[in-house]
Amino acid sequence: MEPLVQQTERFSELLAVSCGSLVSTWDAEKVRRALQWARYLLHVYRRFAGRGRVREALERRLPARGGPLGLRSFAALESGDARLALRLLRNRALAPAAARALPSLLFPGPAADHRDDVPQSRLVLLARRGSALRLLCRLGGDAPRSALLRTHAELLDARLHELGGADSAAARKLLDTLWTRGPREHVLDVTAEALLLREEDPETAQITDPAGADETQKLLRWLLESPEVLAAFCRHLPARRLASVAGCHHALSRAYLDLLTTWATRLHYDLQMGAWVPTQMEDMPWEELCLRLQSLCHAQPFLREEVLVTLRSRKTLDGDFEVPGMSIWTDLLLALPGGA
Amino acid sequence: MAQESADLASDYQFWLQKLSAWEQASSKETQKDTCLHLSGFQEFLRQMYEILKEMDSDAILERFPTIGQLLAKACWNPLILAYDESQKIVIWCLCCLVNKEPRTSAESGLNSWIRGLLSHVLSAFRFDMKEVCLFTKSLGYESIDYYPSLLKNMVLSLVSELRESHLNGLNTQSRMAPERMMSLSQVCVPLVTLPDMEPLVEALLTYHGHEPQEVLAPEFFEAVNEAFLLEKIVLPTSSVVSLWFRHLPSLEKATLHLFEKLFSSKIICLRRMECCIRESFLPQAACQPAIFRIVDEMFRFVLLETDGAPEVLAALQVFTSCLVEALKKEKKQLTFALRTYFPYGAPCLAAALSQHPEAIPQGHRLQPLLHISQLLREAVEDCTRGCPRNPFESWFLFVHFGGWVDLPSSRP
């Protein structure tokens, strides 16, 4: 067991440095050995994929030595050789002798066509898939963007799953990093997509992936505990999309509604214009406020209930005016279905 | 040897010119032209590889000084890289070109350039937007992680776009524009055998548009048909039937492919014949009268050309019985639709023949057999009295039904 763990850690270190300048000291023999190790680990993966204990033991030791650039999970053993191959091919720092040997090591030719433990066929498949993506994206339309969003949501989900267990500190750190590096709008779009990931097919999701809710919970918790992100989330996403996300997650719908009511208090009634206007430039205008509340009402019956109850209680607190222009809550209720 | 060399040299020039032409313009016509030449170019690449693998870098450059240009142009053409095994053979050719002992900086430069090209081929898709790239990196993923997932989602998005377009029939705004459908089908031509694309291929084949003419590119149907006949893809029966229904040349090719299997020099037993016919999906497709008529026509032609060769007759009979079986599965009965399947020959004859002799109890088969024989005699005599009905038609109709043909010679 111990030799296996050591081998895995050593390969993980190799993988981690394969992107950097250390490879200038590598020779052809080292590259060959690295690929051999990768092949051995691929066999290990196939042998132990179904065996929980070995898998867990390896996974426990992994993130330590390799870092984020090394082997990140047991599953990464399956593609270690291809990953190493791609990094070395792209690395301009690789010593010339090693770089010369690389192509024929990776692509031995027709003899290796039917072997499933060398990277050749998997790399060739990658090339074909890349061309497919290039061709399909060239067509334009909505498909590339929606596919990208979905893929990023799935990848984010996978990363959150990796940072397993109840420890959400690591998850929060990852999400904070993503938010800082940006681009922010994309992070928000991906977050929305990730929150909707399991909602499309709830029945099968329950059966095949009962623990999947963990990743969603981590994401939700981060969102609700980061006021800046939450505010940006609720302003940036289109009304309808946000309403569908809110419809799936009760805690989010509450927070969203709270934000909307806070933003509503920023508006004041302009007698000359006969309308509710924002106090400052960055406040949410009346039309958008109405649209968002309307979208919530249309999304789900329980959301409509919540909206109406909230607005009605505010209206009462304000003095229960029926005349428009006195209390924003009165006017908002008038603008909503079933509010009057 | 010299002739082969000369042939290769002229082929080489031909392909170099073609590749240059294709990279100049990326119009619909160029795309179409590229798709037509994909398999030819792959063959050429294979030939080149066989030659290159025996030579070292210096020898290659001496014999083919423009080889770098040729391979580079191939690498920058996504249609070529997407097709079948072309990307693999191009990679192998590039590996042959690596100089194992570079002495000059030019030679080292060549190696560096090859590596760059290999790198490009292996990551043919890069995100357009730098920011998106950044996000993927921040998550710690590389192309090997997200290509499969992105392709799967891309296919899913396109499939739902097709489905929605289909459902929104009369709503022209949400319908997929015919030009877009045409481009989509063209782009799929090299990708037909990539397993990830299967849902999209199926969705395209079964998409019944609302335009009066065909919106999909004919080369798409050809590519799918070819891949299906060579057993490089697996498709559900409904998709294959749809393919043949919409693209006549594919149906004809499929029937010829079957005939080649059945009537080649090797004599095959009836059981094997039945297997081939059933696996070809043609009987199931022939439940559509329009398809049946074409296949039947081809059988008729072969029968005439071979003067009624026994194996052709046998194949026709097996085919008809498979058809009847397929119709039964679809809960249709031959009796009701006879006229549509057999517009030739006397209707009463067709009606009599459609009843399978096995369905009639043992002792009562003589009467219907005599009736059929009577009808046939009348058909021939009708002609000798100057009636326009061709006796061949009646005979041709009769020989479809093996059960009746064999009955007189079988034991009572």
From TrEMBL, chain A:
<dbReference type="Pfam" id="PF11107">
    <property type="entry name" value="FANCF"/>
</dbReference>
<keyword id="KW-0227">DNA damage</keyword>
<dbReference type="GO" id="GO:0061630">
    <property type="term" value="F:ubiquitin protein ligase activity"/>
</dbReference>
<keyword id="KW-0234">DNA repair</keyword>
<dbReference type="InterPro" id="IPR035428">
    <property type="entry name" value="FANCF"/>
</dbReference>
<dbReference type="GO" id="GO:0043240">
    <property type="term" value="C:Fanconi anaemia nuclear complex"/>
</dbReference>
<dbReference type="GO" id="GO:0016567">
    <property type="term" value="P:protein ubiquitination"/>
</dbReference>
<comment type="function">
    <text>DNA repair protein that may operate in a postreplication repair or a cell cycle checkpoint function. May be implicated in interstrand DNA cross-link repair and in the maintenance of normal chromosome stability.</text>
</comment>
<keyword id="KW-0539">Nucleus</keyword>
<dbReference type="GO" id="GO:0036297">
    <property type="term" value="P:interstrand cross-link repair"/>
</dbReference>
<dbReference type="InterPro" id="IPR038505">
    <property type="entry name" value="FANCF_C_sf"/>
</dbReference>
<protein>
    <recommendedName>
        <fullName>Fanconi anemia group F protein</fullName>
    </recommendedName>
</protein>
<dbReference type="GO" id="GO:0001541">
    <property type="term" value="P:ovarian follicle development"/>
</dbReference>
<dbReference type="GO" id="GO:0007283">
    <property type="term" value="P:spermatogenesis"/>
</dbReference>
UniProtKB/TrEMBL annotation, chain B:
<dbReference type="InterPro" id="IPR000686">
    <property type="entry name" value="FANCC"/>
</dbReference>
<dbReference type="GO" id="GO:0034599">
    <property type="term" value="P:cellular response to oxidative stress"/>
</dbReference>
<dbReference type="GO" id="GO:0043240">
    <property type="term" value="C:Fanconi anaemia nuclear complex"/>
</dbReference>
<protein>
    <submittedName>
        <fullName>Fanconi anemia, complementation group C</fullName>
    </submittedName>
</protein>
<dbReference type="GO" id="GO:0006289">
    <property type="term" value="P:nucleotide-excision repair"/>
</dbReference>
<dbReference type="GO" id="GO:0036297">
    <property type="term" value="P:interstrand cross-link repair"/>
</dbReference>
<dbReference type="Pfam" id="PF02106">
    <property type="entry name" value="Fanconi_C"/>
</dbReference>
